[in-house]
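If your schedule permits, I should be very grateful for your opinion on a structural question. I have a record of one protein: its chain in single-letter code and its fold written as discrete structure tokens. Kindly check, if you would, that the fold set down in the tokens agrees with what the sequence suggests. I remain grateful for any guidance, and I place the record below:

***
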Amino acid sequence: MEYQYDRSVSHTRASRTGEPDGGPSLAAAVLVLVVSTGCLAGVPGPGPATPTAGPGVASDGVAVTVVDVVDGDTVDVAYANGTRDTVRLLGVDSPEVRADNDPVEFAGVPDSGAGERCLRRAGANASAYAEDRLAGESVRLVFDPESERRGYYGRLLAYVHVDGSSFNHALLEAGHARVYDTAFTERERYERAAAAAREDRRGLWSCVDADGTGSDGSVRESPLEVAAVDYDAPGNDNDNLDEESVTFRNAGSDPLDVSGWTVADAAGHEYTFPEGTVVDPGGTVQLRTGAGDDTATTYHWGRSGAVWNNDGDVVVVRNASGSTLLRVPY
């Protein structure tokens, strides 16, 4: 997901270079007061830490809890005082899951339908990777003196540190993002990580080998994909649960055993596929919300009320050991 900087939010450097020799202006004094009370750019608590430029551990920052993973490079966080904010991971850009991707932005990925479809799947994998490692975690936001504090959409731009390590950098190492073309302290190290991931065809970079003739490429931790979400059943959803469903497809070339795998929504409602559930290569399996008799291709959740929100939700699939394989918002 790309971001743009809003150059209107901070003119601190320009105003200070224009100060008269007699000392700081009243406006600058007020700015210093605001920074010292930790209110710059609406961040509660202490002011920003100076980020470490290497692989070392950040010793400072703003402590927050990740309350929602929007996608691979964007999270919602809560501060200790209960207020919330949206954070755009600085310096990285994972493929979109809600919008079209432009393969040209990802060096070497073919500018074709195959490349775009591969990137869409890579975006879902990046979201699952972030969900697995950030959801509910206590992290620290570390800010960069070379970057604006907030982007065009008002989101914070920060490094997210988990147990002292940069998740932004880990996203690049795993091949789940490219380096975003902007100025920031960690850029050189990030470019090396991205180049190594591309060389090894990790994550999204396997899309470089998408053949451009309809192949989806090889990027996936699992070949299971969400083929359709029928979230708006005719009439009242709660009265027509058999028409509310999610359809999954096995995009791989081998049968896929999904026994014990779970399907959940953003609210945490969860269904577990029974033992012996196998999806044929290129085949589909449909999960209906209501009750009924299961077949080899149709399963029933057995709920008494609708699950999938008509105004948007997230389909989360985890394997039998609990690892997130898919996180697809709609």
